[in-house]
Amino acid sequence: MTTTQPIRVFIVDDHPVVVAGLTALLSQIGDVRVAGAAANAFQTIPFLKENPVDLVLLDINLPDVNGIELCRRIKKEFPEMKVLALSTFSDRSYISRMIDSGASGYLIKSASREEISTAVHTAMAGRLYLSLEMERVLQPSAVAEAGTVPRLTRREQEVLRLIAEGLTNHQIAEKLFISPLTVDSHRKNLLTKLGVKNTASLVRLAVLHKLV
Length: 212
Prior knowledge:
Blueprint: E1 7-12, H1 16-26, E2 32-38, H2 41-50, E3 55-59, H3 67-77, E4 82-87, H4 92-100, E5 105-108, H5 113-124, H6 132-138, H7 154-164, H8 169-176, H9 180-194, H10 199-208
Parallel strand pairs: 1-2, 1-3, 3-4, 4-5
Helix pairs in contact: 7-9, 8-9
């Protein structure tokens, strides 16, 4: 059944290539229109106040406010607006915290047009969208007991150890032969995963739980 009004989708992601890719995919879905895009929370809230938007595709890792906190703000100010989380990781801590913050689903950035379309329409119908992979991740048997520290990837452990040693993003990039942008992405992922707001708290938690 077609609707008279298109679904107006707003993209929040600080990577222009991701925004361009999502815009191209969404433009191929007949009843969806891209209402705009923003790179951070500072740009997002004013746009949503001034423009009609039905659904926000929200990156978890943003340069000013993380997506989990921004999701809470959006749902508080615009309760009827739907939010779908975007991430490069299918990690239980990300998924559960975004859903707890009011998100209607969770998408990996490599999702196909068909999956994005399904997620958008599921959210607009008032239901929660999780792929089969996400549902498996959320199964209790797939994770450690509640209250334990989230599992870190090998690369995250390496980056965390070097952060604890006081190295800058550029110094870490040189040691690990990756780009400073990639290091910064790992740093933001670690902050979100461990539920802290700054590097000092990150290092303190890492030492407390013997992660470094």
